[in-house]
């Protein structure tokens, strides 16, 4: 089972939006996809309860009381929505089971400060140091014309990590959260602009680890 963890210590960083859309992408590709919710708020599971039955199946797994991301129901691909404030032994255990960790960062000073500390913790972990778990960065809820987005780009340049996407702020994600859908369930003409932003991230996730610099 390949495991992709979405993590950031700050609430409101876009973790759940990223998690549900990635789960929708892999489910549409025909993979048996599990959406692991580690947060007691159960946001991803509530979203999944609203998902129309005719769309590709995503298996929801309530894992907030456990650190073990066990493969269930033949899951081939696990997308893990980690809670805000994930640190210490629980962070280490989750990363120990991850193949990739995606860190979405909202362009605000408080979010960047929190991400800076978190990325330092991540870099010190044995599995990351040995290249068995690959972290990457994303901008979340960005406005391309805003000064804050330029500041986020400058912040990202401090790290020797891939920056895979700058996901714009749009009401489309709010609408999809309410309807249980993802970008990959929408007609192409509705999703085209945002799918272009997501494509570098999807390409990176599809590449075998041995081919990633």
Automatic annotation (TrEMBL):
<dbReference type="Pfam" id="PF01656">
    <property type="entry name" value="CbiA"/>
</dbReference>
<feature type="domain" description="CobQ/CobB/MinD/ParA nucleotide binding">
    <location>
        <begin position="4"/>
        <end position="180"/>
    </location>
</feature>
<dbReference type="InterPro" id="IPR050678">
    <property type="entry name" value="DNA_Partitioning_ATPase"/>
</dbReference>
<dbReference type="InterPro" id="IPR002586">
    <property type="entry name" value="CobQ/CobB/MinD/ParA_Nub-bd_dom"/>
</dbReference>
<protein>
    <submittedName>
        <fullName>Chromosome partitioning protein</fullName>
    </submittedName>
</protein>
<dbReference type="InterPro" id="IPR027417">
    <property type="entry name" value="P-loop_NTPase"/>
</dbReference>
